[in-house]
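Hey team,

Sharing the Na+/H+-dicarboxylate symporter run so nobody has to redo it. Sequence (416 residues) first:
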Amino acid sequence: MKGQNKLFVAIIVALVIGVAIGGLVHINYPESAEPFSKNIKLLGTIFIRLVQMIIAPLVFTTLVVGIAKMSDIKMIGRVGTKAMLWFISASLVSLFIGLILVNWLEPGHVTKLPIQDASSAEELVKSSKGFSLEDFVKHIIPKSLFEAFATNEVLQIVVFSIMFGVALANLGDDYAQPVIKLFDVVAHGILKMVGYIMWFAPLGVLGAIAAVVATNGFEIFKVYAIYLRDFFFALGILWLILLLVGYMILGRRLFDLLRRIKSPLLIAFSTTSSEAVFPKLVEELERFGCNNRVVSFILPLGYSFNLDGSMMYMTFASIFIAQIYGIDMSVGQQVTMLLVLMLTSKGIAGVPRASLVIIVATCSMFGIPPEGIALILPIDHFCDMGRSMTNVLGNALATSAVSKWEGQLDSHGGDL
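Structure output:
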């Protein structure tokens, strides 16, 4: 069995064991559920932190090398334009799907959710109040590269890396080649580390799942069944559209791509972190046949601008909260909300629970009680599983599609 398949099987086994252990603790030792959850969650925390440790240097080195190797500024502009067109189109489609389906299914009108303590949403409400154009600009442009590295601000690292890569590309081979070669070696060294870190993924998955089930039990699925059902149905429609577009561009190679990224998809689903699979995704897309220059340029951009699952969830959750409070929004208001979400959601991918922060800010803007976010906080973890997995799929498809359009997609998969 290949290493990739062994990892996939190990994650599935860990997922099942995690649910079983969490359920056992919740049913038989309810008084110990909270300390147990806190301790076993550390397995997930260790895995996430191991991955976060290598994201900043990997994004920086691969992006600089990718752009510097292009050397042709026209090519950089062409690839960037194609990528941004995909990102904007995919974001609009995702937002519209969420808007249409939440209005059709109306989960807020039929779901009887328990009234949650609004204090659980206080932190989110507080963190969204200061959101402004000034904060948006500050979040994009780094004050210091070292600060961006220290806080893992991917978008800020991307901005610096693009400028540095373009500068290297125009510096001439005598000066640029030693730097490019050094960064290339560093990038491949970090990718080698990915192989080691990914074998800790099953333990991370086990810890994350067991903690949630031990604390909430299986009841939470019953209480929120309709909301979860409707959200995952909407997510299924989005997947169908993404895969159809992917098939139109990649043809039968789409199935090869899905086989390649099945482990990253499952890790993202289990750990609720698309960030956790970034290094592995870089590796698998290169093995699939995508040009490494295109991968290292588009994937970091996609992680900031192309979060399809999160985009769809924002309209779905915002209108859902309005429905819960009996607030009827006109078509014009809903379309305006969609455009606001389109703008405000860009570039905040590095913020913890970014989707929820944006939802709270948007609700406040449109007269919907922002405290309503407390209604969906208990199951946000499960929604986040679907969001994260969809974000990974969207970025894999975007990178593969642009590689194909550039004529930079090998007809067969291979090694790095």
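Residues 128 and 375 are 17 Å apart (CA to CA).

Ping me if you want the raw files.
A.
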